[in-house]
Amino acid sequence: MSAARSRLLQLTAAAFWLLSMFAAQTAVAQTPVQVSSPDGEIVVTVSDDSGNAQYKIDYRGEQLIAPSRLGMRFKDQEGFETNFEIVASEVASADETWEQPWGERRFVRDHHNELYVKFRAIDNPDRRFAVRFRLFDDGVGFRYEIGKQKKLGKVEITDELTQFSVGENTTSWSIPSGEFNRYEYIYSETPAGQVQDAHTPITFKKSSGVHFSIHEAALVNYSGMSLQRLRPGTFKAQLSRWSDGVLVKTKTPFVTPWRTIQISPDAKGLLNSDLILNLNEPNKLGDVSWVEPAKYVGIWWEMHIRDASWGMKPLHGATNENVKRYIDFAARNGFKGILVEGWNVGWDDNWFGNGKVFSFTTTYPDFDLAALAAYAEERGVRIIGHHETGGAATHYERQMEDAFALYEANGVRTVKTGYVADAGGIQRIDDKGVERFEWHDSQFMVNHHLNVVKAAAKYKIAINPHEPIKDTGLRRTYPNWIAREGARGQEFNAWGTPPNPPEHTAILPFTRMLAGPMDFTPGIFDLEPNKKPPVRDDMQRSDPSNRPQTTLAKQLALYIVLYSPIQMAADLPENYEKRPDAFQFIKDVPTDWEESIAIAGEIGDFVAFARKDRNSDDWYLGALTDEDTRELEISLDFLNQGQAYVAEIYRDGDNADWKTRPYDMIIEQRTVTADEIMTLPLAASGGAAVRFYPTSR
Fold first, then answer.
1. Which residue of 192, 500, 569, 645 has the lowest C-beta tally within 10 Å?
2. Are 118 and 130 spatial neighbours (Cβ–Cβ below 8 Å)?
């Protein structure tokens, strides 16, 4: 029998099986209906008890999500609320592997089972909706799919009724939603019953040790979802609103973003999940070889520690002379980019939350973009652009095509955008010319960010937004959406009150980082920058207690633990030149990976990752801890069997402590194999970074 005929018979048999399943479930509309993950450990049950559409999730026989409601309400039409029944269901499955153009791993397996459930109003067969569930071995995604129907054309959603009943005693890690500082808060560990409103990803732990995290994927033309407490341990989807109070404005047919629940028997397993990416559509941009993962330096940290200013006054940082100094430093040390902030007109004005003062094509007189771009190109470096909008989104949209064209003409391939304004302070000009104020995670801003990314792609420019809409995996569909912020980053260690605590970066991988890459900007080598005297009397530094609460070795570990395809060496050039031995690791570490493996971790305590370079046989290991000292036993079985490696180890010294001896670090080499266990002693808020390269190369 030919291979082709054999494959045809297999497909035919599969088709008959699916048809039999459809017939069994569509002919009689039996309820409830169920589907399990490919490994059988996750089970979703969908029912219509008492006319309520609802679902529940079990994992290894334990109930993770108790029966929870589905549905939505509209402004001027009847919604999908009560008196609904299941009228049909369909099952399907898929198993394929796709390749990322850049990422934490090159190849991603998409293996899932699917259940498509159709609901219809008992008293009105014309009113109907469907919910599609996809179950992977690492979790569940589901979304609403609303077709065209009578009396439902243009719709305004006033409530999404989706609930998540997790149990009030389930441990949670979360940040508040609806607050002025967007996503930039310190995470709290509390029983779920004590959480009020929370951004996603929000991560939970059952007493059994099972971990799960609630978020969303493929957020397109919809409002961002946070969680609102209904009663202790039960949350509902809370959608960010427009300025007129409506949540979502759309028309049928439409689909919602996927509501996601990543699931693992332990904390470490969450970090190896690809569920968010798998629920997004494939690349729509085609050839994206112009997107360049790389490390960069920049005129940025010096403003945060008040060595310089964004504006011309009191001491401009983005001058021709200073930019050339950074370009030279980048070229000497193998960095491909230099970020320049404060180059354009507007910074000397009242720009915070008032970005209408910015021009994105007019430079300050002491900054020559064309000359500096040429100077950088001669040295193998590119300028990284910066567009701070001050939250004036419409003002930015009116200029961005010209701004991207200017950057393209000068060889700029990456642009960092910013939306500094209090939450709810995004400026939108409506069709009548009236100024409105929207939320950073509103449908307006969801669409704005995607419009920016699409416009930038026409000029072969990648986008790295700060004060962004949260990541939902759209980097798969639009690979020029290369990174973003969306959490408390390094700058809070310059002036934050309080700065990021030691456990912060031991929580981020299990929460914010589950959504996607973060431009955290690691690599601070002067760990007490505010103790230096000010450069001028009118540029007083922040409180000396504002500082990175880490050891030097932990700053190196961040390059492995907090993934981003663009990693900044955030400190000043002179601080790296004082410590060339430690700086060598930053020079060596790549940003684009063939594979990534979380090998140890507990939320808020410690975490360790191993990652393989996409362009060599080298592996890298990063581990860090919270305020407690600890000793990690790390299996090196991720290395190739039968191959010896040189391990270049950067670890905390015997007396290291982030408060008293943050610079105490040991750099050592030894030969290792995949059969060994590596012991890494970690100081209080300490870390370790290791490079492994084959001895035979």
1. 500
2. yes
Residue 491 annotated in active site: yes
Q: What pLDDT digit, counting tens, does each position of 586-613 carry? A: 999 999 999 999 999 999 999 999 999 9
DSSP for 318-350, please give it. --HHHHHHHHHHHHHHT--EEEE-S-BTTTTS-
| Digit-coded pLDDT (tens) for 619-655 | 999 999 999 999 999 999 999 999 999 999 999 999 9
Q: What Cα–Cα distance (Å) separates residue 383 from each residue in 2, 57, 78, 330, 348?
A: 57, 49, 53, 11, 22
Distance CA 434, CA 236 (A): 33
Q: Which of 491, 503, 594, 648 is catalytic?
A: 491
- From CA 132, how far away is CA 141, in angstroms rounded? 8
Rounded CA separation 342/393 (Å): 18
Residue 532's alpha-carbon distances to 498, 539, 550, 619, in angstroms, are 19, 12, 18, 37
By the 10 Å C-beta count (0-12 exposed, 13-18 middle, 19+ buried), 535 is classed as middle
Q: In three state form, how does the secondary structure of 45-99 look?
A: EEECHHHCCEEEEEECCEEEEEEEECCEEECCCCCECCCEEEEEEEEEEEEEEEE
Distance of CA 209 to the CA centre of its chain: 25
Question: Three-state DSSP class for 120?
Answer: strand
* 8 A C-beta contact, residue 223 and residue 248: yes
Check whether 247 has a pLDDT greater than 60: yes
- Whether 567 and 620 have beta carbons less than 8 Å apart is answered as no
The mean pLDDT value for 566-584 works out to 98
Q: Are 621 and 608 in contact (CB under 8 A)?
A: yes
Burial of 420 (0-12, 13-18, 19+ CB in 10 A): middle
Instruction: State the pLDDT at residue 697.
Output: 66
The one-letter code for the residue type at 461 is I
Strand stretches in 183-333, DSSP E: 188-191, 197-198, 202-205, 211-217, 225-231, 234-239, 248-251, 254-255, 258-264, 294-299
Residue 309 and residue 303 in contact, taking contact as beta carbons nearer than 8 Å = yes
With b for 16 or more beta-carbon neighbours within 10 A and e for fewer, the 429-441 pattern comes to: beeeeeeeebbbb
Cα–Cα distance measured from residue 554 to residue 285, given in angstroms and rounded to the nearest whole number: 37
pLDDT at 11 over 60: no
H or E element that contains 670: strand 665-672
Q: Residue 508: which of 206, 303, 304, 203 has the closest Cα? A: 203
- Give the type of residue at 319: T
Instruction: Please say if the pLDDT value at position 29 is more than 80.
Output: no
Number of helices (H), then strands (E), belonging to the chain: the values are 13, 37
Model confidence pLDDT, tens digit, residues 165-220: 999 999 999 999 999 999 999 999 999 999 999 999 999 999 999 999 999 999 99
* pTM, rounded to two decimals: 0.95
The angle formed by the CA atoms of residues 467, 473 and 478, to the nearest 5 degrees, is 90
